[in-house]
Amino acid sequence: MKEFMDKDFLLDTETAKDLYHNHAAKMPIIDYHCHLNPEMIANDHRFSSITELWLGGDHYKWRAMRSNGVPEKYCTGKDTSDWEKFEKWAATMPYCFRNPLYHWTQLELKTAFGIDKPLNPETAREIFDECNRQLRENPDMTARGLMRKYGVEVVCTTDDPADTLEHHKRIKDSGFEIKVLPTWRPDKAMAVENAEAFNQYVKKLADIAEININSFSSFLEALRKRHDFFGEMGCRLSDHGIDEFYAEDYTEEEIIDIFNKVTSGERLTDEEVKKFKSNMLEVFGEMDADSGWTQQFHYGAIRNTNSKMMAQLGPDTGFDSIGEFNTAKACAKLLDRLNTKGKLAKTILYNLNPSANEVMATMLGNFQDGSVPGKIQLGSGWWFNDQLDGMTRQMNALSLLGLLSRFVGMLTDSRSFLSYPRHEYFRRCLCNIVGNDVENGLIPFSGYEEKRVRQMIEDISYNNAKSFFQF
């Protein structure tokens, strides 16, 4: 019987072990998409307990706890103690076998705290006390300290065009050696389906851009001004969280009329909403191309499905699902429009539904133009797919229908400063896939090809991202 999560965890062959330990493991981390709070980094936040660090905002764990019959007060409640919440998570852990949360939890305990024993009801108090002791006494167990511990080189947060980016400026001015860069996430500037919320956002955008927004042209002027400001603050990527791609036909006059209608407080038709979103995706794509940025599209989620809990807790609290959207034609049409204008930026496509892996993998080759290796990328396994099976399926699709060697690799997509072991998890998975192919005679492993395989592992782990994003 193989020991649980030993040094060769997920590595089935000698080649896989060599590729991981001697190549992937030593590479720094570029976390080019996450949801870390930049204020915590600016303040070098010291966590009050392992519960704050681990369970605060982690809807992955909340979903598992709810499924295990844990009442909501132990997940998101304000009147429940840190120990009570931690105890309920520890009691849930033995029911998480085969769920990636089990491996992630144990990896985080081992790599961050040096605790190499399973979390369960019998070990909960000991582990809780030891983690809290380290958080309290170890000067390096802070937001910045944890980033240093995991060898992080670059982090890209997720930020709205109306954000001040004041905390990013504080981080930069402090001389912090790890780059913490903003990412342009303009979803609210497209969300015209809710006229009231959109108009509140337009006012906020007008205030931060110091532009009187009284027309569609002034709306775009404000967005371009903020886009330029993000660039000055080091931004190199945009990100769009969309349920599906939009590429409706429209005229400029129609978009102006739609903007005037929604800013007058009128409710739009579904067709008008789609036309406006289609236009804005093109506008944002052109901005990104002009600035030399990379555009990212995270698509395919059905969000906030539980209206009762949405009213109680708000978004991003664990009530979202994989969606079924037939959106390939719209994606192709959007990319083609930008490409025809000479405005197709480097692009990463993340599909949430794994059944679309091959669909999106074949989309890449349609718009590669030889200007940049892997200009159009298939994003890593995202959200419900950032686990062993999901990552394996994504890399297999990319391998068969594109160039795995040019893949920009993993990201955390997380709000937690303890999520960096997901890069280790990914790298072990990658090395196992390639190592198995070598040992099964599918990839040559001598002379030039042996060097190429080793370089490929280091490239996907780190080098490709560094080159692609030009950090």
Question: What would you say this structure looks like, in words?
Answer:
The mean pLDDT is 97. This protein has helices at 14-24, 38-42, 50-55, 59-67, 82-92, 100-113, 124-137, 143-149, 166-173, 195-209, 216-232, 252-263, 270-291, 307-313, 328-340, 357-367, 388-401, 421-439, 447-469, and strands at residues 29-31, 152-156, 179-181, 237-242, 294-299, 301-302, 321-322, 346-351, 376-378. It has 471 residues and is an alpha/beta fold.
Secondary structural class? alpha/beta
**First-residue to last-residue Cα separation:** 44 Å
Sheet with the most strands, sense and barrel status: 4 strands, parallel
% residues in beta strands: 5-15%
Rg over CA atoms: 23 Å
- Read across the widest sheet, the strand sequence of neighbours is 4-5-8-9
Low-confidence parts, pLDDT < 50 over ≥5 residues? none
Write down how many β-strands occur, each being a DSSP E stretch of 2 or more residues: 9
What is the overall number of helices?
A: 19
* SSE pattern: HEHHHHHHHEHEHHEHHEEHEHEHEHHH
User: What does the average pLDDT come to?
Assistant: 97
Structure summarized in a few sentences:
With 471 residues, the chain is α/β, with parallel strands linked by helices.
How would the blueprint of this fold be written?
Layout (H helix, E strand, L loop, with lengths): L13 H11 L4 E3 L6 H5 L7 H6 L3 H9 L14 H11 L7 H14 L10 H14 L5 H7 L2 E5 L9 H8 L5 E3 L13 H15 L6 H17 L4 E6 L9 H12 L6 H22 L2 E6 L1 E2 L4 H7 L7 E2 L5 H13 L5 E6 L5 H11 L8 E3 L9 H14 L19 H19 L7 H23 L2
Helix pairs in contact: 1-18, 1-19, 10-11, 12-13, 15-16, 16-17, 17-18
